Each structure stands twice: as structure tokens, then as C-alpha cells.
Amino acid sequence: MNVNLVKIVLQPFAALALCAGLSACAFDPPADPASPLASRIDSLVAEKRDYPRWQDFPAAPVNVPDAATVRTAVTGLEASQGVLNTEVAAIDWELGDAEQFVTTIRQRLAADNVEIPTADTPAQIEALAASLRARAKAPPPVDRPLR
Questions:
Q1: Contact (Cβ atoms closer than 8 angstroms) between residue 50 and residue 40
Q2: For this UniProt entry, which residues form the secretion signal (predicted)?
Q3: Can you spell out the DSSP letters for the chain?
Q4: pLDDT (tens digit, 0 to 9) for every residue of the chain, 147 residues total?
């Protein structure tokens, strides 16, 4: 029974050591010296050998709220959500008769007699188009100092 226990414990370590050994070969293979690109490959590998550098990583965040502050904000948000849900549940969402509402709106619109101004002559149409083009022009650029 102890032999089985030793096998169970040692087999994963042996597999891990084998994988580590193989990965070392896979991640640093030697370039074939007979290849016409061997010198170029070696130079590119040498340039990137020290990458990534610590200065290339983003800086650690600052002014991060601690867990208690986040917990307080979440608790307040959940409480306000509960209050809002109670208020929404108390609203009477009955709209009444939709046809009567539409009829009332149509009567109010008909009573206003709003006329849309239209351009009748080609000269008026051209003047309207010119005024719209003038309004559509972009404003002049803002002068910004060079940095």
C-alpha cells in the first residue's frame, strides 16, 4: 500500500519535471547554422531577450477604495434600489382609454391650426438653401498653443 502511495505522489512530480525539461528545449531552440536566416534570427532573439522589462508594465493603480468603502457604497445602492422598487410598485400604471386619449390629442392639434411655412418661388427656395448652408458651416478652428 505504501508503494502505491509513493507512486501516486511521485508520478505528478516526475511528469512536471519532464514537462519543464521539454519546455526549456522548446523555448530556446538553437538556430540552424546552415540556414540563410540564422544570423537574422539570432539578432532578433538577442534584441528581445530582456523583454518584457518592469518599466514596460503599467503602474499600479492609486487611490483605490478599500473593501469597506466599496461595501458601504454597494449597501447604499442596494438600499436606494429597494426604495425605488417600493415607489415604482406604488405607481398606478393604468392609462385609461387609449382611443379617448388619441381623440383628445387630435382635437388639440386641430384646434391650433399650425401652418408650416413653405417656400413658394425658386428664389425663396434658393435663399432658404443658402441660409441652411451658412448655418451648416463649421466654426473656425480654435488656436491651441503648441506643446
A1: no
A2: 1-26
A3: -HHHHHHHHHHHHHHHHHHHHHHHHHHSPPPPTTSTTHHHHHHHHHHTTTPSPGGGSPPPP-S---HHHHHHHHHHHHHHHHHHHHHHHHS------HHHHHHHHHHHHHHH-PPPP---SHHHHHHHHHHHHHHHSPPPPPP----
A4: 555 665 676 676 666 666 666 565 556 677 788 888 888 888 888 888 777 778 888 888 899 999 999 999 999 999 999 999 999 999 988 778 889 989 999 998 888 876 776 767 888 889 989 999 999 988 888 877 776
